Amino acid sequence: MKVLVVEDDRKLAGFLKRALREEGHLVDVSNDGEEGGTRALQEEYDAILLDLRLPRRDGLSILRDLRMHRKPTPVLVISGRSMVADRVRALDEGADGYLVKPFALDEMRARVRALLRRGQPPPATLLDYSNVKLDLLGRRVDRGGRDVLLTPKEFALLEYFLRNPKTVLTRTSIAEHVWNLDFDWDSNVVDVFVNLLRKKLEAGGECRILHTVRGVGYVLREEGTLEDQARSERPRRPDESP
């Protein structure tokens, strides 16, 4: 899931980002209302944590703008304003929850989980394709009974592929779902991580299921034979038909 934190207290924003990332979320942070409002309106997020007192633009105007444009993204207001009138106003403007500072990180995480559950079927916690199994709760991956040890970023990358098997994923879509807005678009980070993941998935001599689609991106799919796989990966000769 992708979460936006709009909070001008950089220390608190850092704590929130780390706590949410530990839950497996991708997190973007904005430290002022103008940037946060633009991101909230133009980008797609699964949830937004929104402070009310922000430089350049206040949180209530951001919330009002979101609902005026019919953006249904769940919004959890995080504010030092504890008066009942403040809570009522935020909820009337379209907030889905209100959390008064200071608050426990465990409560914040629980509130976010509750927002993400609203109106959605429970997300699958065990993904399985071919002989690759990914356990989101246990943070484990195995292939044919062999444990595959992955870094957090490799784990997120494999999760994205397993949620979209047999679908060609562009490098741009991979970057948007696995990395946040700080991604360096001029780098080859996506290719590097795909290759690292591919090597780990094949470390036991298993057949390749993560394939390159030349000029586009990558796809998770089964192939008939090792000869077919080698043919699909090598550059095509000018006189060779597809």
Layout of helices and strands:
Layout: E1 2-6, H1 10-22, E2 26-30, H2 33-42, E3 47-50, H3 59-68, E4 75-79, H4 84-92, E5 97-100, H5 105-117, E6 126-129, E7 132-135, E8 140-143, E9 146-147, H6 152-162, E10 169-170, H7 171-178, H8 189-201, E11 210-213, E12 217-220, H9 226-233
Parallel strand pairs: 1-2, 1-3, 3-4, 4-5
Antiparallel strand pairs: 6-7, 7-8, 8-9, 10-12, 11-12
Describe it.
The chain is of the alpha/beta class. It folds into two domains: about 1-115, Response regulator (Rossmann fold), CATH 3.40.50.2300; about 125-235, Winged helix-like DNA-binding domain superfamily/Winged helix DNA-binding domain (Arc Repressor Mutant, subunit A), CATH 1.10.10.10. It is about 40% helix and about 20% strand. The chain contains nine helices and twelve strands. The strands form three sheets. It has a five-stranded parallel β-sheet with strand order 2-1-3-4-5, with helices on both faces. Strands 6-7-8-9 form a four-stranded antiparallel β-sheet, covered by helices on one side. A three-stranded antiparallel β-sheet has the order 10-12-11. Strand 7 (about 130-135) and strand 8 (about 140-145) form a beta hairpin. Helix 2 runs parallel beside helix 3 (about 60-70) and helix 6 (about 150-160) crosses helix 8 (about 190-200).
